Amino acid sequence: MPSFSLSAPGPSQNPVAVQQLPGGNYGMTQQPTYNPMQAKAPAPLGPGLYPSGPYQPTLPVSSYQHAPPVSSYQPAPPGQPLMTRPLLGGPPSNTPPQSASPGPRLPPPQATPPPPAVSSSNYYSNPQQPQHMPPAWQYNNAPPPMGSPSSMGTPPRGAMANHVNPAASSTAPLLPPSSAAYSSAPAAHVSHSGAQPPGPGSPPTSLHGYIQPGTAPPPMNPMVPNTYQPSRASYGPPPTGPPPTMKPTAPPTGPPMANVKPPPPRTDAQCGGAVNNTLPPTEPDCQDGDIECPGTMAGNGPQASNSHNHVDNKMAGMPQHGPPGRHLGHYPSLPPGYQNSPAPHNAPPPMHPALLAATQPYTQAHQPYQQPPGGPGPAQLSPSMAAMSLQSNTPESLRVVNLLQERNLLPPSPTPPPTPCLPQDLQKINCNPEVFRSTLTSIPQTQSLLNKAKMPLGLMLHPFKDLSQLPVVTSSTIVRCRSCRTYINPFVSFLDQRRWKCNLCHRVNDVPEEFMYNPVSRSYGEPHKRPEVQNATIEFIAPSEYMLRPPQPAAYLFVLDVSHNAVETGYLNVFCQSMLENINALPGDSRTKVGFITFDSTIHFYNLQEGLSQPQMLIVSDIEDIFLPTPDSLLVNLNECKELVQDLLKSLPTLFQKTMETQSALGSALQAAFKLLSPTGGRMTIFQTQLPNLGVGALQSREDPNQRASAKDIQHLSPATDFYKKLALDCSGQQVSVDLFLLSSQYCDLASLGCISRYSAGTVYYYPSYHHQRNPAQVECFQKDLKRYLTRKIGFEAVMRIRCTKGLSIHTFHGNFFVRSTDLLSLPNVNPDAGFAVQMSIEENLDDLQVVSFQAALLYTSSKGERRIRVHTLCLPVVNSLSDIFAGADVQAISGLLACMGRYCTIKHNLATFQTRGKTNNF
Amino acid sequence: MAFTFAAFCYMLALLLTAALIFFAIWHLVLPEYLIHFFFCVMFFCAAEWLTLSLNLPLFAYHVWRYMSRPVMSSPGLYDPTTIMNADILAFCQKEGWCKLAFYLLSFFYYLYGYRNSFNFVVK
Predict the structure, then answer these.
(1) B residues 17-56 closer than 8 Å to A (CB)
(2) What is the ipTM of this complex?
(3) Which residue of B lies nearest to A725 if distances are taken between CA atoms?
(4) What pTM did the predictor assign?
(5) Taking the C-alpha atoms of A651, A657, A661 and A662 in order, what is their torsion angle to the nearest 10 degrees?
(6) Which chain A residues contact residue B84 at CB under 8 A?
(7) Domains by residue range for chain A, with CATH
(8) Distance CA A894, CA A885 (A)
(9) For the segment A423-481, what is each residue's pLDDT rounded down to a tens digit?
């Protein structure tokens, strides 16, 4: 799991970036990668409707693992921008930067795993990027060098990190000191990019990508040229230069050249090719080509989308997928076999034969590179480039990807999803793909056609994603279809002034009197101008019919492991610190409640009742039959008792410093917490650092270390006990959601523990080998996650229903929730990072339909105690030919859904079953 | 006229199968398994080997099915968290229909067996 962190580390800011993840996210628990920054303030960047920067891709549990780059993180991200800029200032001049940050380019060649580190850095860096857009960009070039400094120390771990956007990494704060290991990775970038303004290459691109979505792509081009050339010049030098600076890293190891060379050619060539393809008009210019490659994707994407031309989009989009990651690590890591590619500089030919066929692109590509002259430069650049171009030109099936070697497979920049082929007016108001998207943007008419296409049909959605422009409607009557209860939406048809036809069940309904009046324009008789009919995403303030009980207050209960092992990891300090900092930012109102429980072999409650001079600790040692010592004063009003809470948080880390208790009675603590929260509902946050081994819910180590390497199939993916599942279902029934932070260094049976979050719509955050001193990268990661976690929006006692046009039906749900009926998901809590996936099947032929619609309605209680309904409606065309289906396939969503399906099948049967089913497409 | 044990078994099976038909529809898993097991034992005691052999495959299936149920601490076969998945739901429904057909057929078979063993004795 760690190896592929699905989520793009990328800063949430890019709306697009997020997308990539969706798939991944769903699969597991969602995790937010977010930038702290964003969390609060949505980035203005994105012009789009939903610029919401904040959005985070949810990561699978593992995602965090990248941690490795130990030291690297520490450098505060904030500083970075400054750092980088100056360096960059002399964009072209790689050398100067190098000196500053030794690590630069070549080091990467090391072939070692270092890349991961990079990712980590990216992570952080990203957040900032948005702000400094312009600079960032430029930097990109420079940034690469930055990365270099990494220290070897952080080694392998990093592996996880990969996905990262190279770009990010480059920019990244990496700050000098840190991970040498990374350096290699960064170096890689650098080499091409760094040397190059290349920045253009990967790094810049990524930035680019981000920016673009929102802003205008055009700027890009101009930029590029400038940077580019300089870069070239720089090119030559960098390679040589770096070694000197690099001292720490072995990276420069002789190989750099060798390694580098082969790849470069490819990239270049391909790039050129790619460019050409996508942008026919573009000139052979090398500059354009190089720069564009990365950029193009982003740039084109949008355009394509507008144009409706699916094919084009894909072209642009598809390639991005693969390549992005590669740049980084990849060439260094390439096994000898791959590297063979003969030609050093020009050697485009080494590419696949297929490419050759591609023809033009190639030739053009060549030219550009050659021009660059500068000897070594091109070669270095090329690796990244090559990766990019390859994809675009070569049929996927022809490209060999060694997943063990190439860890960075995600594109550096977000890929725009294909745009459904809808009439312009519908397209304009269709739901944002960040929120709601389908794997096939053209729905096949029949199930048999879908089977022929051999692609999964499903939806990916982030129903609670942060949105910057969300129309909110307060109205006494919410207009819904009388038979299927669909909310009125932009895709219904008005037969006349007083009647509308439901687009899901096709029933004709009356337009109620109130709906005839349009509050926006203050006019009467224009029901089709109402906001409900103008926006695919809309929020209603729900009247009392939508409440089973008065809206609950926000309630947060923290359950902390304070056994010896937990104290040893030092997480308590981080947690308390983070809580103290964010205690005022917890979403809520004057009714917000908060409580704390700690546990080792006994359960400790904290009496925080108003009027006490200091928090009172109550210890219950009867863990077999847990009870609440003082039911009223354990969960207290945050505003009234803030001082006590702060006192507690300040003293907590020291309280258990000397503990020698090694056992963990998690099950009992959960039961106690459940009892405490069940009257109100709310969010329970568990911090656990070891295998629970006492009382109810005790688990045993199921894993035989000797089997790890040899086992053909991973064992023990399903829970060992149903204790956690049953408890989760109880929690779900009482509107309690359980989030699990697992910070452990040994086996702790996540398969069993995870159930507690899985079925209560919680989230699992996993930090393997967390330690406050030995693993600073994880600490950094933990801090950021925690900050986002504490301050992001939250919805309580939620349910979500997904409806679709008659003839389609929901087949399987993926995500964290409990399915209450065939289309109703019970979500005790919902957060902006939560993602869900559903598989659809076509039960009746859709011959007579032009379009089908999907509607997801999320009913929740906001942290302010308001009952609200958020409705997303997605409209897609129906097609009857295979080519149209393929043209409308959304590769990112498909891979996301496949990941979910793979997880489901692997747990239910085993991985081999999924693989064989995948071959026959018999899911 | 003698009312043999075999005839009694068939009569009992006849009644119980009627109940099973409903259980198969309503998915009352444990009662269904227990009743089926019960009259398998009865046929064994009555030495009705043919009838027993017809029922043994289903009995074996029941045992297997229960052994391979999801991890659960309470009795039961269906897991509330997965039963709503279309593939599992479809499988369980198909299973229900198949058993319904089997019980219907066996109902008439028992009717015949009952009459047969009864007549046999009478002669």
Answers:
(1) none
(2) 0.84
(3) B81
(4) 0.63
(5) 110
(6) 813, 819-822
(7) 424-481+530-548+796-919 (2.60.40.1670), 555-700+714-793 (3.40.50.410)
(8) 13
(9) 888 888 899 999 999 999 999 999 999 999 989 999 999 999 998 889 999 888 899 99
